[in-house]
Every structure is written in C-alpha cells, then in structure tokens.
Amino acid sequence: MKELVEYIAKALVEHPEEVSVTERKEGDETVIELRVAASDMGKVIGRQGRIAKALRAVVKAASTKTDEKVSVDIVQ
Description:
- By secondary structure, the protein is of the alpha+beta class.
- It has one domain (about 1-75): K homology (KH) domain (GMP Synthetase, Chain A, domain 3, 2-Layer Sandwich).
- The protein contains three helices and three strands; from the N terminus they run αββααβ.
- It has helices at about 1-10, 40-45, 50-65, and strands spanning about 20-25, 30-35, 70-75.
- The radius of gyration is 12 Å and the shape is globular.
- The two termini are about 20 Å apart.
C-alpha cells in the first residue's frame, strides 16, 4: 500500500522528490502517513478534499483484497 500511495502522490505534485510516505501499525490497522511540500499540499488535498477522498478510496479498495484495514493520513 505504501508504494501505491507514493506513486499516486508523486504523480500529483510539482516536487516529487519531497514526497515522503511512512507506514505504521496501530493494533489491527495500518496507518499510512503522506508528507508533501507545503506548496503541494493543495494539490494532494484538492478542492473540498476530493483528491484526498479519492486517494483514500483507492487505498481502501486495494486493501480489501488483502483483508487488512488501512487508513491514509496527510500530514504537514
């Protein structure tokens, strides 16, 4: 999942070298943290959060194949 989020985020932003994705376990859930440059934050979130919502939907769909719970956090 980490690679999927990183691939999508790098395609969206102007500074792909500043994209950082970390993955950690919290109980039975995997949390993926996405960090981008401050100037690219709007591109990752989108208008009214549409792009962020779509990114989370793609990750959720991919995670159902492996029967694990995955959430995506976009942090500064």
